[in-house]
Amino acid sequence: MTNAVIVDAVRLASGKGKMGGALSGTHPVELLATVLRSIVERNNLDPAQVDDVIGGCVAQVGEQSLNISRTALLSAGFPDSVPATTIDRQCGSSQQAAHFAAQGIIAGAYDIVIACGVESMSRIPMGTATLGKDTHGPGIHARYPAGLVNQGISAELIAAKWKLDRDTLDAYSAQSHQRAAAAIAAGAFDNEIVPIDVANAAGETAAHLVDETVRAATTAEGLSGLKPSFRTDEYAARFPEAGWNITPGNSSPLTDGASAVLIMSEEAANKLGLTPRARFHSFSVAGDDPVFMLTAPIPATHKVLARAGLSIDDIDAYEVNEAFAPVPLAWAHEFNADPAKLNPRGGAIALGHALGSSGTRLLTTLVNQLEATGGRYGLQTMCEGAGMANATIIERI
After folding, report:
1. Could you give the residue numbers annotated as active site?
2. How confident is the model at residue 129, as a pLDDT?
3. 3-state class of 211 per DSSP?
4. How much is the pLDDT for 311?
5. In this protein, which residues make up the domain named Thiolase N-terminal (predicted)?
6. Three-state DSSP class for 328?
7. At what angle do helices 68-75 and 28-42 cross, to 10 degrees?
């Protein structure tokens, strides 16, 4: 069987997903073009050799519409001959892009692919794509007469089911910021972050290299004063079990970002004189209750571990996307996972969740964590809208 290997992985430092954020003045095409250009330049790769670019983006409207992956590669200077596609599996879009890329290589359909993702939540605000629209249709309304809910309510339901109280959620969230801040201070992200020139408040151009969403001074005590985000009288009546503990402090912030992973067959990497850093070991995708919505990382992880013939104790690092604090905490409870291995460089609560970019962002951080610690296996999983999840196991080479 052909091995699909990761040769390199890069990302932008996060920007706050609001006007005035570090990346908010940059068109999303240019965010993605920057990481695409960087990854071929870092590896002295002729972009004409890339068989396909597979990108993830959730809000494919406005500046992110009309196949942004293709637009971005043209902006990055790739030749006209390189094709691209943009996919949407909600928050797992670029993780799915990496799956498709690696699976295409394993099947022999590709030799070299770039999996990537982008989201500008400042320029394309959350909800823009669905504003005033019924995205469900009569079949869904009939199947779920009480109605589906937003992800914040799902996070409340998960917290209630797994008995995760406010103190636990806030302590975990503060730890995410502290771990990310420690990683920044130690230079742990230096090998994965590529520069992008942005204008600062004074109108001066400077390279953006540090995650803007990380707050090093965050404490659980400080987070405890924040008000719940999702309680309404309607939801309180419908879900009396909810504790109403989800706040901006234990949720991922709106974020701008882009990331990319260079994936090849092992033969292609050797032919080009490039050193593979990790190989794709196993994949899974799963669905779960769309009301609880954010629990699918649990069945996806069971599935990928079974396919890999591994146990959770065999895994040296876990990247479980921190859309909301209850998601990784419930996951860890189900697997009795070592908390020291869970998002050891901080997660999306600190580093941000630029929806379409997050899958390859997590993969980028995971590769570097394994290299830094000498770990062998890494597992990545993330919850996705409508109750889905991808899970990936990679093996450091």
Report:
1. 91, 353, 383
2. 81
3. coil
4. 98
5. 5-267
6. helix
7. 60
**Angle separating helix axes 326-335 and 297-308, nearest 10 degrees:** 40
Degrees, nearest 5: CA angle 215-217-220: 100
**Cα gap 45→60, rounded to integer Å:** 29
Distance from C-alpha of 364 to C-alpha of 139, rounded to nearest angstrom: 39
130 pLDDT higher than 90: no
Query: Distance between CA atoms of 42 and 249, rounded to whole angstroms?
Result: 36
| The one-letter amino acid at 69 | S
Nearest to 117 by CA among 147, 150, 145, 84: 84
Mean per-residue pLDDT over the chain, rounded:
97
d(CA 265, CA 111): 5
Query: Strands 278-287 and 388-396, how do they pair?
Result: antiparallel
Give me the mean pLDDT over the 22-50 stretch. Answer: 98
Helix intervals (H) in the chain? 28-42, 68-75, 93-107, 137-143, 151-161, 166-185, 220-223, 233-238, 266-272, 297-308, 326-335, 348-351, 358-373
Q: Which amino acid is at 286?
A: A
353 vs 255: CA distance, rounded Å: 6
pLDDT at 201: 72
Local confidence band at 180 (pLDDT 50, 70, 90 cut-offs): very high
In contact, 164 and 330? CB cutoff 8 Å: yes
Q: Which of 28-42, 66-80, 197-211, 248-262 bottoms out in mean pLDDT, i.e. has the lowest?
A: 197-211
Residue indicated by tokens 């905490």: 329
Q: 333 phi and psi, to 5 degrees?
A: -65, -45
For the entire predicted model, the pTM comes to 0.97
The pairing of strands 317-320 and 377-384 is: parallel
**CA nearest 63: which of 30, 91, 89, 96?**
30
Structure confidence by residue, pLDDT tens digits, 247-285: 999 999 999 999 999 999 999 999 999 999 999 999 999
pLDDT of residue 344: 98
Q: What is the pLDDT of residue 203?
A: 80
Residue with tokens 């801040």: 181
Region class of 57: left (phi > 0), else alpha (psi between -120 and 50), else beta: beta
| Confidence tier at 128 by pLDDT (50, 70, 90) | confident
**Amino acid in position 291:** V
Give the bridge partners for 117, in sequence order. 56, 259
